[in-house]
Write a structure and sequence with these properties.
Strand content: 15-25%
Strand order of the largest sheet: 1-2-4-3
Largest sheet: 4 strands, mixed
Number of helices: 4
Shape: globular
Order of helices and strands: EHEEEHHH
Structural class: alpha+beta
């Protein structure tokens, strides 16, 4: 898969890192990719995060949903692996509750 770097996505990542993750996320490449079976994906190599890819058509369709998918991928980086376990869910929920993904309404 080819990931095209995006200054806009990288700026959102940096902002989210500061706001929701205490500046603890490492710098990674964040960009667009054509992803027919996913909205986003985080790539790890040897246990370290390397990149986040966001589906290009998603960005064209909905910037608000794109922000939510990016936050989801950032939670994987905060967790340290591509898993949807309790630790990942706690990191994502904390970010959402502190204002991340305002398009998502919690009940």
């Amino acid at each position: 898969m080819t990931i095209t770097e995006s200054p806009d996505l990288e700026a959102w990542y940096a902002s989210d890192n500061s706001r929701y993750f205490g500046g603890k996320l490492p710098v990674v490449m964040v960009g667009w990719a054509d992803m027919p079976h996913a909205l986003g994906e985080t790539f790890f190599a040897h246990g370290k995060p390397e990149a986040i890819a966001i589906d290009r058509p998603l960005g064209e369709y909905s910037p608000a949903l794109t922000r939510c998918v990016l936050l989801h991928e950032e939670a994987h980086i905060a967790r340290g692996k591509e898993a949807h376990d309790a630790i990942f869910r706690a990191k994502l929920l904390k970010a959402i509750k502190t204002g991340g993904c305002p398009a998502l309404v919690l009940q």
